[in-house]
Amino acid sequence: MASSKPSVIVTGAGSGLGKGAAFGLARAGCSVLAAVQYPQQVTELRAQAEGEGVSLRIEKVDLLKESERRFLAGQACDVLVNNAAVSETGPIAEQPLELVREVFETNVFATLDLTQKVVRGMVERGSGRVVFVSSMAGLMAIPYVGAYCASKHALEAIAGDLSQELKPHGVEVVTFQPGPYKTGFNDRMWDSAYRWMDETRNFTRRADMAGTAAILESQYDPREAVDALVELVQAEHPKFRNVVPLAIEEAIRGLQAEAWSRPA
Fold first, then answer.
1. Contacts of 203 (CB under 8 A, 6+ apart)
2. Looking at residue 2, what is its pLDDT?
3. H or E element, residue 202
4. What integer pLDDT is reported at residue 257 of this predicted model?
5. Would residue 2 count as lying in a domain?
6. pLDDT-derived band at 192, boundaries 50, 70, 90
7. Would you call the peptide bond into 91 cis, given omega within 30 degrees of 0 as the criterion?
8. Share above pLDDT 90 across residues of the chain, in percent, rounded to a whole number
9. What is the pLDDT of residues 198-220, one digit of tens each?
10. Domain of residue 191, CATH code
11. Per-residue pLDDT for 3 more than 70?
């Protein structure tokens, strides 16, 4: 990255990690466009930025609309932070496919299309960086979070390919894999399964999901993840893969090693 502060686009900036990163980068002197999903988020973030004296541009962008992805790609961008994501929980053996498709539409297809549009300008300039906010779920399988895990695994593969394809053009691609931080995202995604699961019809029981849902009781302070992402965006020589916290990185490494000998 150049020594001057970059212009940054952050998607999914209406709440949680994306919002924290957008404000953190703006406070650090970056020119930041925070793309949010809902009109009320525009109002709320603008009021907060004004109250804190932070220079931050906030735009409502529906990433599922091609015209709005094209608009976003037309804005100044040295670094694209692909943070927007949705999730649907529940047993993948019984989950309605329409819900799985919805997860992939946002997490994979809309994200890839936006990235394709943005990197064209980066290639023409011979510089730029794309940060894919993946998840610990992109590097491991988590029972009853299959749709989300699958979408993040797909994003990991896309990022891996892009990293090699774009490097000759001067464009860097890095990934960021946060563990379970208490941003509200994890709590919201567990509400979804109970809307369609029916124990008179489904063989999966809510009690079966309790072990995975228990992760909500021990989530980390999101400040750590926000600070790590803000640092990664501006890093001079970033690594391709960046897992936080360290305990989650160690757990992932252990599970990946175990998979080679684990019985079916």
1. 94
2. 52
3. none
4. 95
5. no
6. confident
7. no
8. 89
9. 999 999 998 999 988 888 888 99
10. 3.40.50.720
11. no
pLDDT higher than 80, residue 36: yes
Which position has the token pair 């252990």? 254
- Rounded to whole angstroms, what are the CA distances from 38 to 12, 60, 72, 228? 10, 6, 15, 26
Domain contains 263: no
Question: Cα separation of 32 and 62, whole Å?
Answer: 18
Calculate helix-pair angle for 111-125, 146-166, nearest 10 degrees: 10
Q: Quick one: CA torsion of 121, 122, 123, 127, rounded to 10 degrees? A: 150
- pLDDT tens per residue across span 116-140: 999 999 999 999 999 999 999 999 9
Q: Quick one: which H or E segment has residue 188?
A: helix 185-196
pLDDT for residue 1 is more than 70: no
Cβ(99)–Cβ(110) below 8 Å: no
Please name the residues in contact with 130: beta carbons below 8 A apart, sequence gap of 6 or more: 79, 80, 82, 115, 118, 119, 122, 159, 162, 166, 171, 172, 173, 174
Q: Alpha-carbon distance 6 to 28, whole Å?
A: 10
Is 148 one of the catalytic residues?
A: yes
The residue from 148, 181, 194, 220 that is catalytic is 148
Element (H, E) at 132: strand 128-133
Q: Tokens in use for 22? A: 């957008």
180 is a domain residue: yes
For 44, the domain range is 7-258
Does some domain include residue 205?
Answer: yes
Domain count, the chain: 1
Closest by CA position to 10, among listed 40, 52, 41: 41
